[in-house]
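Renewal narrative, Specific Aim 1. Our central claim is that a sequence can be written position by position from structural information alone. The example that follows is taken directly from our test logs and has not been curated for this report. It begins with the structure tokens describing the chain, in the order in which they were read.
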């Protein structure tokens, strides 16, 4: 049976450098997507992503499994993003919609039965979703991304964002409703 994130982090904190590798492998994709969708472009996301992992590495000796590892990691990411936004005087965080050269493009998966008009409709829906995501208030967007990209529960989102559970639940609910409305509008 594979070791839990918490066990791996405690082993890493205790001097087992090899324990970091599976932790990083498990969380690099969701964490990077969370950061990428929270800032303007890939260059900023890369920098913040690396900073989050560096802060996690630096804090390993102080790590205590009072919550899930992901909650701890996303608390670091949340705090780093807040610092990033404050340094730029931003109140609304931009999001990369994939229109620029340095951003990702998002296409629905193309299978053998994917017809061109269905693929075009899928791309239009994805574009509407990204626009709606960009239009969300930063706190709602962050709660949504923590939930969808990383599978954090409402309690874990609340802890990572430093707010009460009801606040986190409301942010997530409002984000989901706004995104649903944006996608359903034709």
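The sequence written for that structure reads:
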């Amino acid at each position: 049976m594979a070791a839990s994130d918490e066990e791996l982090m405690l082993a890493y904190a205790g001097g087992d450098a090899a324990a970091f590798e599976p932790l990083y492998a498990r969380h690099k994709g969701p964490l990077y997507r969370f950061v990428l969708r929270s800032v303007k472009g890939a260059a900023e996301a890369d920098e913040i992503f690396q900073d989050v992992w560096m802060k996690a590495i630096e804090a390993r000796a102080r790590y205590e499994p009072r919550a899930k590892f992901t909650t701890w990691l996303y608390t670091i990411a949340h705090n780093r993003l807040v610092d990033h936004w404050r340094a730029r005087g931003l109140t609304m965080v931009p999001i990369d919609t994939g229109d620029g050269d340095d951003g990702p493009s998002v296409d629905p998966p193309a299978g053998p039965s994917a017809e061109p008009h269905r693929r075009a409709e899928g791309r239009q829906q994805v574009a509407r979703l990204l626009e709606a995501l960009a239009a969300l208030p930063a706190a709602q967007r962050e709660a949504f991304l923590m939930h969808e990209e990383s599978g954090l529960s409402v309690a874990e989102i609340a802890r990572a964002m430093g707010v009460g559970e009801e606040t986190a639940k409301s942010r997530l609910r409002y984000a989901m409703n706004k995104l649903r409305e944006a996608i359903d509008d034709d």
